[in-house]
Amino acid sequence: MFLGTYEPNLMDKGRIALPKKIRNSLGGDRIVLTTGFEYCIFGFPEESWEEVTRTELARPLFSDKEGRDLRRKMYSSAVSIDLDAQGRFVLPQEMMGYADISESLVIIGAGDHFEIWSKRNWEDYRNKL
User: At what angle do helices 65-76 and 46-57 cross, to 10 degrees?
Assistant: First the structure.
């Protein structure tokens, strides 16, 4: 389970290191990132990505426009990423732009996944909760 709030450093070229507690919850060294719904980035262990998205794939393709739209959003922006031994990886530039990440970021645990936010956007969002 992904818990907590962390502020890792954003290194050159969008490189970050996942906090140890987040890495320990992954159960492996591959993650799937996709754009979230509130201008953040969702991160999933590769195995749970398939499980989480299974319900969307079960929706009727031809008769369910909302299902098609969700599939397109989830899968068209998704990338599979290998972590190095220290849990580091490079955030894709398109995702950094989408989430407005340029300097400081926050990684939050969200139960079955983690999320990567620009620090400013997370603080604004959290204050509205």
Answer: 160
Instruction: Report residue 105 as tokens.
Output: 């970021």
CA distance 102 to 129: 24
Answer whether residue 16 shows pLDDT above 90.
Answer: yes
Compute the distance between CA of residue 24 and CA of residue 26 in angstroms, rounded to an integer.
6
Taking a C-beta distance cutoff of 8 angstroms, is the pair 6, 22 a contact? yes
Mean pLDDT along residues 6-20: 95
| CATH of span 5-128 | 3.40.1550.20
pLDDT at 57 exceeding the cut of 80 = no
